[in-house]
Amino acid sequence: CPGDYAFRNACARYCADRKEKQDELARKLERFYARVQRYRALARLRTAAEMRELLLSEGLEAQIASGGGGSGRLARVRKLIAEGEGMSVNAFLRRLKDGNMKFGFSESGGEDAVKVLTIHGSKGLEYPVVILPELCGHFRGGERLEFMWTDRFGSAVKCFHPEEKTMEETLVRTACSIYEQEKDVREERNLLYVAMTRAKMRLHLLFTEKGKALSPAYARCMCDYFDFDALSDYWENGEAELPALPRTQLAAKADEGEVQRILAVYKQPYRYESSARLPVKSSATELLEKDEDELRFVAGQGASREEGVAYHAFLQHVVFGADAAEERARMRTQGLIDKEQDALLDTQKLRAILALPSVAALAGKRVWREQTFLLRLPATEVPQLGSDAQDEVVFQGAFDLLTQDEAGYLILDYKYSGREDASLKAHYAPQIALYKKAVARIFRVDERTVRARILNIKLCREIEM
């Protein structure tokens, strides 16, 4: 396909010219596009981890394992899959893009591995047990270069005597040296704080001698920051033998009253049980309880599902106020919708959708499409969680379309369903409620001024929420 075509457009055109091309390449492209459409539809329902498991099960796992170093490569793929747990495909791709197409994880060790890191390298990490050795090593301190400079005293050089051909220190250099030493002490103290706070359960500090500084301000090593007299209960001489464990004797018959008192302690309800059951992060769609009718609708009408995806793609790129046929042609030319999606669209139905009052009013207005958001809410404000905990939960979601008019902000949420209006409204009410809260928080407006409507693409109806 010579000419000014992008590679993806050239493939689409080669596959479309079936009358001229009936070779194996055209058939291979047809099979490829059919598989892409299937994956695209599944990706709207499944997480990134589930989609990658599907790819592995359909031949990719065998291909990776059969190559050189297959087991190691497959282990790295498994770790990559673990990064997508609970994330949508779009969210995973955004994270991958934000991370410069890289994920940081160790290829060696495991849950029980011992890791050796610098203090700087451990920033932002936590471990069950942390051991800090060599805390008696002296700070750098005392360096006096030929040319010294500090942000407080400026530059300082040695004093030179031309007659005697000698050099000596100056008062400014001494002040610079003291200033740098104080700065080093502060930096080392901050570094020690970082190291100690990496521990989640146990922290071991190793010393070869006790600190000698009268005050932390005069510390010359990290052990000078500790008051060993105050920590005498925690001090353990490494050369001492561990005491023998005391022998215990079991009573011939347990005291029933004592047993009940012990059991009463362990049977006490946990005060924060409701908080422990809360998810740290959720999404608006996860709060929807998909009943059997909804599941039958999604699973039993694959063609309708793909049709809904095609209409959603059209609304994602359409210029509101323009003719549907012209917009459809523009999207095909620019590659915004592919051949299979275009075949599922009906121009008259598109015109009917664009003529709906809420959609027609968008012409010339500023709109936000497919905008993602993160919202932090107290669990008590989300009835679907059924929790009385005061903890906050982070929710993520995405607006199909958001606009602002004279009355405030308006959310349009696209659905493709054969349900009655009342049933659709009741089913998606929790999701829309979270969207309203998100808009109110983001733009700092009263939630009562935020309106929402469901746009049922299949039935060409809009439902006031």
Q: What's the average pLDDT?
A: 79
**Cα-based radius of gyration, to the nearest Å:** 33 Å
Run of helices and strands: HHHHHEEEEEHEHHEHHHHHHEEEHEE
**Count of DSSP helices?**
15
Structural class: alpha/beta
Low-confidence stretches: 289-303
Query: What about the largest sheet?
Result: 6 strands, mixed
C-alpha geometry: extended
- Bin the helical content: 40-55%
Beta-strand percent range: 15-25%
- Measured distance between first and last alpha carbons: 50 Å
Query: What kind of assembly state do the chains in view correspond to?
Result: single chain
The beta-strand count equals 12
Write up this protein:
This protein has helices at 7-16, 24-43, 48-65, 70-82, 89-98, 171-196, 256-266, 273-276, 292-300, 302-317, 324-334, 339-344, 347-354, 357-360, 421-443, and strands spanning 127-132, 147-150, 154-157, 159-161, 166-168, 199-205, 281-283, 367-378, 392-405, 408-415, 450-456, 461-464. The model is unreliable at 289-303 (pLDDT under 50). Helix content is 41%, strand content 16%. It is built from 15 helices and 12 strands. The protein has 465 residues and is an alpha/beta fold. The strands form 4 sheets. Strands 7, 8, 9, 10, 11 and 12 form a 6-stranded mixed beta sheet that branches. A two-stranded parallel ribbon has the order 1-6. The longest helix is centred in the middle third of the chain and has 26 residues, at 171-196.
